[in-house]
Amino acid sequence: MIETTDPIITPTLRPTLEVVCHQFEAWGKRRPCRGRIPEALWQAALGLCKDDSIFEVSRALRLNYNELKDRVLKTKGVGLAVGQRPDLGFVKLDLGGPIAPSECLVEMEAPNGARMKISFRGIRKDFDPAELSRAFWRQGR
Fold first, then answer.
1. Within a domain: 97
2. What are φ and ψ of residue 45, in 5° steps?
3. pLDDT (tens digit, 9 = 90+) per residue, 83-123?
4. Residues spanned by the domain of 110
5. 87 found inside a domain
6. Do 23 and 71 belong to one domain?
7. Assign residue 105 a region: left if phi > 0, alpha if psi is -120 to 50, beta otherwise?
8. What share of the chain is helix, strand, coil (3-state, %, to 5)?
9. CA 58 from chain center: how many Å?
């Protein structure tokens, strides 16, 4: 008798979401009762998370999002302490010193001939140019 491996749960090199969905469906139909997902299927799901988001993969395969996320973090070697957030790949940029404030000049003329010119540098917390402009436009009504 020739022994064969189960092609349904054998992970491929770069499986697509559709292929892995079919693998999960085939496994689900064959199992006699609720049981643990075979490691080969978990590995296939983890492989999908390299190209697709954890949310998309968990939804398509009907997996628990948090369990899949934990497995992804473990494969990346990220051990999180209690209360610690995972590194989501954000990069902090150090731009050196503060950026020089910008200058702005706004000139307005209302239909009644009234004119207003606003010039300011940087942003001041006690100055709202939008509100000042609205007041200017309302004054002619």
1. no
2. -65, -40
3. 555 555 666 666 666 666 677 788 888 878 888 888 877 76
4. 103-138
5. no
6. yes
7. beta
8. 40, 10, 50
9. 15
pTM of the entire predicted model:
0.46
Residue 21 sits in the same domain as residue 61: yes
Whether the predicted pLDDT of 4 surpasses 50:
no
The pLDDT assigned to 124 comes to 64
What share of the chain has pLDDT > 70, as a percent? 67
Overall number of domains in the chain: 2
70 and 108 in a single domain? The answer is: no
> Residue 10 falls within a domain, yes or no?
no
**Could you identify the residue written with the tokens 């950026």?**
99
Name the H helices within 4-64. 17-30, 39-48, 54-61
CA distances from 117 to 102, 104, 112, 123, 141 (A): 17, 11, 16, 17, 19
